[in-house]
Amino acid sequence: MSSLPALLDTVLGVVLVVLGLSAALVAVRLLRGPSGLDRLVALDVLVAEFLVGLVVYIALTGDSSLVPVVVAISLVGFLGSTTVARFVRRGTGR
Amino acid sequence: MSALRAAPPPDPDGTLGVVLDAVGTVSIVLGAVLTLVASVGLLSLPDVLSRMHAATKPQVLGLLLVVIGGALHLRTSVDVWMLVLVGAFQLVTAPVTAHVVGRLAHRGDGVRSDLLHVDELVDSADETDPGPDSPETDEDGDDGAEGRGDRAGAGSAHRPQRAAGRSRDGRNGSSPGGSLDSGE
Fold first, then answer.
1. Which GO molecular function entries does the Swiss-Prot or TrEMBL record give (chain A) (predicted)?
2. Which domain, by its residues, includes B62?
3. HEC states along A15-58?
4. Which of A48, A55, A54 has its CA nearest to residue A74?
């Protein structure tokens, strides 16, 4: 029983590595998306993965002072992607 | 019973604490696997709507699973309520962005129309789309297809006036939700 918390911490570290890998895949889509909307969707997913990574870091360290940061990024990410969607529409002129 | 109820805050390494940590870790692992699957789908799916389908997984379900896991790890009242707030914000704000992006993708060329079975947002249904609405209102609205003809008639009775009013260009300037961006 005493080795179970260490095992859980190891699992959370592996989860952080997996999140970094998936963020790299999303960054590939962000860099070579054919249209601006593809990049916008990829950027939204990247923000969501950043939130997930922050929550996993909080769970790993037990440091609860980052929880308001998660709340703030959840709101600001929504505003940014909606605004950028409007500029994508005006910019391409379609 | 009172000792068991007072158990979790004083000793975080008790049996209940370890069990809650394990359940939270399992939830976090499920959320991370969903995130990885969504990233692979974001790379391999063909058009914007399909990629939005993949993108919803870490935005809503993955984040909710990870937030539940983080709340099971922290187990403090303020932190749990703030994580509940994160989940609620994400549930409220994800459909807003999805609506805007989906509407713009349908207006531009972000939708591969050969992959769609039904395109309900197409505006000129008479020559481009041999869909379920235009033949039944014109020819046979009497036999058998009464409900479908009624529904299609209600759908296409509003579209020509609106399309004649605000058609900017031939194909996609006059979808029924055109007030989404022409309002401001």
1. sodium:proton antiporter activity
2. 2-107
3. HHHHHHHHHHHHHHHHHHCCCHHHHHHHHHHHHHHHHHHHHHHH
4. A48
How far off is chain A from B37, nearest CA to CA, in Å? 8
**pLDDT digit string (tens) for chain B, length 184 residues:** 444 444 445 555 688 888 999 999 999 999 999 999 999 999 998 888 888 888 888 889 999 999 999 999 998 889 999 999 999 999 998 888 888 888 888 877 767 777 777 776 666 555 555 566 555 555 554 554 444 444 444 444 444 444 444 444 444 444 444 444 443 3
* Residue B39 shares a structural domain with residue B121: no
Q: Would you tell me which residues 30-89 of chain A have a C-beta closer than 8 angstroms to some C-beta of chain B?
A: 35, 37-38, 40-42, 44-45, 48-49, 51-52, 55-56, 58-59, 62, 64, 67-68, 70-71, 74-75, 78, 81-82, 85-86, 88-89
Please say if the pLDDT value at position A83 is more than 70: yes
Chain B residues in contact with A11 (beta carbon < 8 A): 25, 29
Residues whose CB falls within 8 Å of the CB of residue A86, separated by 6 or more in sequence, listed in order: B100, B181
Instruction: Look up residue A77 and give its amino acid.
Output: G
ipTM metric: 0.87
Q: pTM of the prediction?
A: 0.70
Q: Is residue B182 part of a domain?
A: no
